[in-house]
Amino acid sequence: MVEAVQGAKVVVTGAGGGIGAALARRFAGQGAQVVVNDLDADRAKAVADEIGGIAVPGDASSVVPDARDALGGTVDVYCANAGVGRGGGGPGEPLDEQGWALSWDVNVMAHVRAAHALLPHWLERGSGRFVSTVSAAGLLTMIGTAPYSVTKHGAYAFAEWLSLTYRHRGVKVHAICPQGVRTDMLTASGSAGDLVLGPTAIEPDDVADALFRGIDEDRFLILPHPEVAAYYQARAADPERWLGGMNRIQRHWESTR
């Protein structure tokens, strides 16, 4: 059991399946009271019924007030897990303005809106925990999906900013950055996901394991795929070499399409 979350009041967005459902189950198993949020009301209810939680369906960008009410007026842990993985979108391809706008709204601005709603109370009492499901794409990048890669960089940057700004005031922040995870989003990523992410894909429960180790060790950066640390270091140490390597992967992908 992780003492920091026992009895906590927790919100998990995008928890109707995949990583979000795994996080909701794990928090509930640790004795937390969990609000399960998802756009799909039936899926939210199914997970909530399974874990003895509370289903609060709807848009993750505006869920905080209703979730707080459902939890009796307090949120201790907020998991900004809802995300979208739009492919394409790069220069030279058809410009999908709606896809870009949706990616910014769900992958970045939903996190910003939640933090704005939560921080006043957290700062007043001197405690709170914000968990951001980012992606290794937020540390590195991902071929074939400009909106996802760019907005996940933004989500990671926002989590960093929260941590450096408020950690001395009792706010804990964790950024989860897995590579491939066997979810509907990985399936939807198509041939690029099959090439880059498929061979080392892990289960959603593995992501939950990594998060709870990180909470127990009070770590900001959660890497369910430990090898991502070396990739991140290589990217920073020699950007030209790293970009060249990623371009080789891009060219290989193009040759197989």
UniProtKB/TrEMBL annotation:
InterPro entries, sorted: NAD(P)-bd_dom_sf, Sc_DH/Rdtase_CS, SDR_fam
Zinc-finger is among the record's keywords: no
The UniProt record lists the keyword Endoplasmic reticulum: no
Keyword entries, A-Z: Oxidoreductase
Pfam families: adh_short
PROSITE patterns named among the record's database cross-references: ADH_SHORT
PANTHER family from the UniProt entry: 5-KETO-D-GLUCONATE 5-REDUCTASE, ALCOHOL DEHYDROGENASE, PUTATIVE (AFU_ORTHOLOGUE AFUA_3G03445)-RELATED
Assigned protein family: Belongs to the short-chain dehydrogenases/reductases (SDR) family.
Protein name: SDR family oxidoreductase
The species this protein was found in: Streptomyces hirsutus
